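The authors assume throughout that readers already know how a fold can be written as discrete tokens. What matters is that the chain and its backbone geometry are given together, residue for residue. A single example would do more here than another paragraph of explanation. For illustration, here is how one protein appears when written out as sequence plus structure tokens.
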Amino acid sequence: MIKALFTAASGMHAQQTNLDNTANNISNANTTAYKRTRVEFQDLIYENVRVPSPTDQGTSLPVPLQVGGGTRVVASVKNFEVGTPQETGNPLDLMIRGDGFFQVLLPDGTVGYTRDGAWKITSEGEVVNAQGLPMEPPINIPSDATSVLISPEGRVSVMTQGTVEPSEIGQIELARFVNPAGLLNDGGNVYTQSVSSGDPLTSTPGTDGTGTLEQGYLETSNVKIVNEMINLITAQRSYELNSRAVRTADDMINIATQLKR
């Protein structure tokens, strides 16, 4: 009965983590290019009360007798399904149609990766994200530019006063990963590579498996609210059942301690 208490408690703890994850998904339903996360569970070590083996009577046991020790959360997996396009009309808003990540230069000199294409221009003309992190490789818009044109292949051109033809000023590059689910979330819509994700494979948009760019669009979150509400209900019911198991085990312990000769 004591074992049942800890087993049910592990289920309550796992469902609490599941609820935390679901709440985070729902809270980011309007976050640009947010990717929903699901948690994965794993059963704990089993107690082998009896294992299949030959008996003294010359027979063998057909099945084992094992008692489980509960569950635990072992992973949080990102779903990189592309979100719905949202037209903004802003020439610096970019959406990746397909695989790939924009690159930004982090304060420590390393490179971060993001699907958030809501770019801005600083007073010096540098293209940065909402946190002020510059795009990598850097793109600088001339102060006399009247319009910015970005091709699906990532070529950045500008029109300036007194010109009739756009002039190319830079090239946007995208990064791919063999295992994007292994990327680490750093917040601010930025990921960093890990041992699990592998090294980035950079190329121009539309080559080597990367997607193309769509100017004037942003990628919305891929969170499906209906599915998350179902996950909330499932987590709540599982938590309630585990708490009921705790109460039942406690009641059985109480009955055993009240026995008299």
DSSP finds two helices and 19 strands in the chain.
